[in-house]
Amino acid sequence: MGWFWADPVAPATGARRNMPHQMPKDMSASPPPSCPMHKPGADALKPTAKPPTPTPESACPYTPGSPSEGAKEKTSSTLSKYNPLNFMFPDLSQEPAKDQTVALPTEREPSTIPKGTGDGNWEYPSPQQMYNALLRKGYTDTDATAIESMVSVHNFLNEGAWAEIVEWERRFGKGLARGWEICKKGEAASMAGADIGANEDVVVQPKLIRFQGRPKEMTPKAAWLQLMGWAFPEKYGTEPPFDRHDWFVQREYPPGEKKEVRYVIDYYSGPPEPTGEPVFYLDVRPALTPTQAVERMMRWGGDVWYRASGASDKPAGENTSTLVLTSADKHYVDVRILNPDQPFPNDPSNSKALSRLDWGFAGTAISTPAQYKDGNLVKPGHTQWIHEVDNKIRDPGSDDRDEGFMYPVAGTSQVLEKGAMVNPESGVVEDYEELWEDLDIQKVGNEKSHVSWVLRSKSSGGEKGMVIRIGEWIQGVLRRGDEFSVGRWKWESGKGWQRVLTIGDGLDLSKTLFGERDILVGDTFKADNGLEWESQTGRTMKVLSTHHRRLRRKFHAQHPLP
């Protein structure tokens, strides 16, 4: 399952091919001749005490053993033609073979797997290169029409195996202590930060150094499962794995210490989908060294503990009504009101109104858009919200921010946010999920376009505030010393602008802002209470922005067993 090339041939751009190849149903039969890693020629290579020959940075990560003394004379003339890292010819042609009747693509697909040495990622062979390699190895009966499917399956399974390894490294790449903090929240919960690369400073991206195909050596776990299947066929009965690999991965601990970690991969084939598409199962785990055995126990035990504690069944919910206005230039105002089933406070003289405020904050956001390939989400969007005004922090600093990964919910206007923040119930930072819904923006009165503007307070006595308008909504927060104020307005047909939420008496706006005059960047407005506001963006920009309402939040907290 693991052909990699890194020879300096530029990959051509072409349409990605689907993965139509069906693995054989009889997994007890010999592996198909398509994959040279299964061939007996590699079995003649036996390890010796001789140190390995240094390999070039561009070589493939597959490393067979060294030939025995008795095998050297017999095979040296053949083996000398091969790249010692992938047991393949180093000069494979992209030209059609003699008597080849089927045209094969020459495009090489880059993998997402970083090389252990050198720059860039490993590359897969083109179907034409694969076919030429099989012919040169003597497999002249190879069906050329099956090559594209075979290459597609190999690439697909390699990517799946690497994704599993990356998840293991995300958990344990900074040590066992941090790994347990992630694992004890359960398998599903700890997937919240699963995307290495979205936040590169969390865990250094692992790299694949080499791998070894061992299809004839069943792992102890696979052998045990076969024994259980023999004893209890209805519950554990399954075909044996059709392949086994050992992958050697470079793990880098802060501040730069590198360690080689071996992973064991069993490849299983399952019943095909009703559509005929093949199904594969990959069992990927660290090899059983003392440290990696602890990692395996932590991951398994943490998930068992989490589910046994009942935390996984805790219903999602949040007793707040939340509205966030976000401008096109990433200014935002986020207000969350407790007990949403009760009328919102709307009296500036109500001294108890502040107790209804769960959280009110504003600032700017830094977003990285989601990445897609062939219509599929490859990497979720990532956003950091920098707090400039916050009812919980008197003077927010540059480190006062929270962040999350954004996953679109297919077929809806909802977005699932996964991240980490302080759980108000426990007071500690925990993983969470929040489901957001985009609301349509409305035009107001005679306005011919959607209107958005952002105001910041002009501080004269330590005030700090922000107000944003998005369509028919205006919302703002203001801090003056120890006092915190919140205001929200909504435009209603036949009534005009109506104030619908008031907490504190400090947030007041000039009546000019509720008219239809153009608001330009740099315009200032003085409220009746004397506070001045300055426009950061104006309505003439005609920006289209969205605002969100939180539907629910779920913390992945750890609860003790009763």
What descriptive keywords fit this protein?
562 residues; alpha+beta; Lipocalin; eight-stranded antiparallel barrel; seven-stranded antiparallel beta sheet; 23 strands; 32% strand; disordered C terminus
Explain briefly what this protein structure is.
The chain has 562 residues and is an alpha+beta fold. The chain is 17% helix and 32% strand.
Please describe what this structure looks like.
The strands form five sheets. An eight-stranded antiparallel beta barrel has the order 7-8-9-12-13-14-15-23. Strands 20-19-18-17-16-22-21 form a seven-stranded antiparallel β-sheet, with no helix packed on it. A four-stranded antiparallel β-sheet has the order 3-4-5-6. The chain starts with 39 loop residues before the first helix and ends in a 7-residue tail after the last strand. The chain has 562 residues and is an alpha+beta fold. Helix 5 (176-183) packs parallel to helix 8. It has helices spanning 40-43, 69-79, 127-136, 147-172, 176-183, 220-231, 233-236, 290-308; strands at residues 110-114, 121-123, 207-213, 243-253, 257-270, 279-286, 320-326, 331-338, 357-368, 371-373, 376-379, 381-390, 401-408, 414-422, 429-439, 452-457, 464-470, 473-480, 483-492, 496-503, 524-526, 532-537, 546-555.
